[in-house]
Amino acid sequence: MAVPKRKMSRSNTRARRSQWKAEVPTLVKTVENGKVTYSLPHRAKVVEDSAGTPLFLEYKGRKVADV
Fold first, then answer.
1. Cα angle, residue 24 at apex, residues 22 and 28 outer, rounded to 5°
2. The predicted structure's pLDDT at residue 20
3. For the region Disordered, what residue ranges are annotated (predicted)?
């Protein structure tokens, strides 16, 4: 494991940490059967039955995994 040779000053540490910023995720709006849903692009979505029970994961219209 890499170990720093010298101690990093408090001001340098805080200056480095201040550059980390949270980003708002980009959501894609889709309308299915009159219901509006928002999802993350390029991610598998959970397909549920009418009772709300998760059935499987779907990506680009194909079943990719069981839940």
1. 155
2. 86
3. 1-20
Dihedral pair phi/psi, residue 61, rounded to 5°: 80, 5
Count of helix runs (H) and strand runs (E) in the chain: 1, 5
Please report which residue ranges of the chain form alpha helices under DSSP H: 10-17
Per the listing, tokens 């990093």 go with 8
**Which domain covers residue 29, as residue numbers?**
24-66
Position 17 in a domain:
no
Number of structural domains found in the chain: 1
Rounded CA-CA distance 29/36 in Å is 7
pTM for the model: 0.47
* pLDDT tens, position by position, 1-49: 899 999 999 999 999 888 888 888 899 898 878 889 888 888 888 899 9
